[in-house]
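We modelled the chain as a single entity of 670 amino acids. Its sequence is:
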Amino acid sequence: MADELTVLDGNTFFVSDRAGDVEPGDLPNGFFHADMRHLSKWRLLVNGRPTHVLTSRSVDYYSAAIFATLASVNVGENPSISIRRDRFVAIGLHEDLTIHNHSDKPQTITIDVEYGSDFADLFEVKDHAPRRGHTRTEVATDDVQLIFHRDDFRRQTIITFGPPFTVGPERAHAELTLEPRGKWHTCIDVAPVGTGEMYRLRHGERTFGNPRPDMPTSFEQWMAQAPVMSTDNDVLRHTYRQSLVDLAALRFRPLKTLSYSLPAAGLPWFMALFGRDSLITAYEALPFQPHLARTTLEALTHWQANEDDAFRDAEPGKILHELRLGVLTMVGERPHSPYYGTHDATPLFLILLDEYERWANDRDFIRSLKPAAMRALKWIERYGDPDGDGYLEYQTRSKEGLVNQCWKDSWNSILFSDGSAAKGPIATCEIQGYAYDARMRTARLAREVWNDSALAKRLERDAATLRERFNRDFWIAGRGHYALALDGEKRPVDAMTSNVGHLLWSGIVPSDRAAQLTRRLMSAEMFTGWGIRTMSAKDAGYNPIEYHDGTVWPHDTALVAEGMRRYGHREEASHLALMLIQAAAAFEYRLPEVFAGFGREETGAPVEYPTASRPQAWAAGAPLMALRTALGLDAINGKLRVDPHLSEGWGEVRLENIPIGAREPAASRP
């Protein structure tokens, strides 16, 4: 990551080396748009050689600047030529190339831009799979078209050069003479073409600090809408801003009819619409950017399943897991059109629906989504519980499906304390908590918004029954915590994991057990000093660098802290929230998707996970939820309630212009 230069705008992004170049290979670099790589080769050669980088940096999330000189630079030999590349991404790609002659003599140089595209599906890049399909190149006077097709699927990359370039099938070439102290400038545009539409860059004047994305809310409006923070906590101030910037960078509109935009899940593998990720991110951001929640609910309602499809793990009423637009999905090899292999997104949809109503008081919108909510409830009560035991359990029906369909969706995430893997169907504990909370929240909407008291009473009865049964069947008295899951034989999967912290967030836990869980979660086996491990360091499956079996996930820790607050454990919640924000300082104030689970006393600083996404949506939202936890922000009957509890180290914190209904109150430390 340190040697990469990344610019992005929603589901369009460019990852290169520090020089701005891309070499063909197995790395996830190149210019990507809508789940496909549109450039797999992109190199600038001056006098036949790559440039020597002086400085390379991202300026804004959508732009970068590279300063370089000739490759012949050496000790005692300083070329008189400087080279600048300015790169901008906004659906399309634009590069400004400027070359200066700093000598008093004319300088003759050659410039070559090499290009090519393998048009790899992002799944092919990730899995190092062979590419299939046909490519060809069409050359015109000032542009070249790289064209891909497979069956009826087609993509193009159109590269346009200004004079004096001569364009060929694999490179554009120019020869020029720079006058003494002279300067030369040209522009290069790269436009991906998909679904018959060419996507040229749309950032207005193509200047730094002036993003103009193709969506209803500009970057300036986005930042202006967010609450204004004043604090003497330097890490908090930087992390708060970076979180807002990253959420802005990840925004895209999978449907043009959406009111606003919503974030793609994360760079590089998850630059797409994900159900669970979008719902949790929107929940985290509600007191800061509430329209993310509305847009997420709109989009997920649009793609709510209406048929039974085993290949896509779809049943009527289910909320999607992942939507992809690449060739493997479009020709039917992958089920992501969309894929529905998530068992928690449907109850999370109902949770967000209720929380959005509390903050936005957007009752006409909530009424319009009652049919979608009823379909989601039907899925929970019927399809999500195939054996009728009252618990939501998953098992894929698809040859391309996910083995695990909870938030810990890697193949080996559901382990017994001895390290052995559970076999399905699997009912994880936190999904039962979500189902409980979804019923309670939907009951409130039924009573207060939909005027359906009969439905409200039924859902509250069902929730109470689930709560009683769950606390009987999942509690492991001998270990003092809830089971991670019930396996296919209804045996408790007895590893101690962070999933139990989500139960606190859901409200399904009795108060006495909540105190016991809080103590356990804050003990050395679970708390690293920066966050909560996904698995106890005392269990056999623990590995501090295993994706879901001992690492720390910022969104996970933030939900655990919010759960502690729910049960009144304010000091622990506030301390945990602060430690998570402190961890951001080790990552340039941008929390990654996941980091290693080593203890603070062991390493002194958080340790990176080798393939973590960054920026990543629910990690960017985690500091916002941590701030909500510490300041005690809630929407009650259309009014903001502020009940801060700031543990030692927070310093002075003030948050103004918090959006709630038509009001914009302020929250601060008393």
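As a brief sanity check on the tokenised model: The two ends are 41 Å apart (CA to CA). Confidence is low (pLDDT under 50) at residues 662-666.
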